Amino acid sequence: MFQYLKFMLSSRIFQKKLDKIKEITKDEKEYLAKIVESRFQFIYGKCIGMGYILDPRYLGTGMDREVLMNAEDSLFCFSNEDGTTKEEKKEKIYTQYTEFKISA
């Protein structure tokens, strides 16, 4: 199983188990959940998301909807060397991405 799916599954399981613990306060639970989310963001990164949506074996299958949308947005808004993006370039990347997904 792809590492992303393993992590998302384990973080959901973690959250459910965390909710069952009565010995720690709500603030402590929120803090622990925040740390897990922070580690996910650190480990995950934009490149892994883009790689997962561009891998013909996966095409983003099983990704959380919000994470998928963020990965696609990162792909479409991939900047030029000077850090800018243009609508024409975004549209061209979107068209190529759509053709790729259909053909894969």
The gist of it:
This protein is an all-alpha fold and 104 residues long. Helix content is 73%, strand content 0%.
- How many structural domains? 1
Quaternary organisation: single chain
The chain-level structural class is mainly alpha
**Which spans have pLDDT < 50 for at least 5 consecutive residues?**
none
Q: Main sheet, how many strands, which sense, barrel?
A: none
Give the proportion of residues in helices.
over 70%
> Number of DSSP strands?
0
Helices and strands, in N-to-C order? HHHH
Q: Give the integer mean of the pLDDT values.
A: 80
Strand content: under 5%
Taking Cα atoms only, what radius of gyration do you get, to the nearest Å?
Answer: 17 Å
**Helical region count?**
4
Task: Report how far the terminal alpha carbons are from each other.
Answer: 20 Å
Coarse morphology = elongated
Could you explain how this protein is built, in words?
The protein has helices spanning 3-20, 26-54, 65-76, 87-103. The chain is mainly α. The chain starts with a helix and ends with a helix. It has one domain. It has 4 helices and no strands. Helices cover 73% and strands 0% of the residues.
Keywords:
104 residues, 4 helices, elongated
